[in-house]
Write a structure and sequence with these properties.
- This protein is mainly alpha-helical and 67 residues long.
- The protein has one domain.
- The chain is built from 2 helices and no strands.
- Keywords: Membrane, Transmembrane, Transmembrane helix.
Length: 67
């Protein structure tokens, strides 16, 4: 498999960053949509989204530093 070029790493980094921002925005705006869930389901939904956003931000940082 070929090694990616610097601009390709930057594209992956920006993509992961944008998806992470979207997930965090969805958590904030989705509070009304999950109001009818049980408290445990609500917490699990929010935590899953936050963990996924943090993971994507980690990948964004990782790929932005790749050379």
């Amino acid at each position: 498999m070929k090694k990616l070029k610097l601009h390709q790493y930057n594209v992956i980094s920006r993509f992961c960053e944008d998806i992470a921002k979207g997930l965090m925005l969805a958590v904030i705006l989705g509070q009304m949509a999950i109001a009818n869930l049980t408290p445990l389901e609500r917490v699990l939904s929010i935590l899953t989204s936050i963990v996924l956003a943090l993971l994507l931000l980690f990948f964004a940082i990782y790929f932005s530093k790749e050379r």
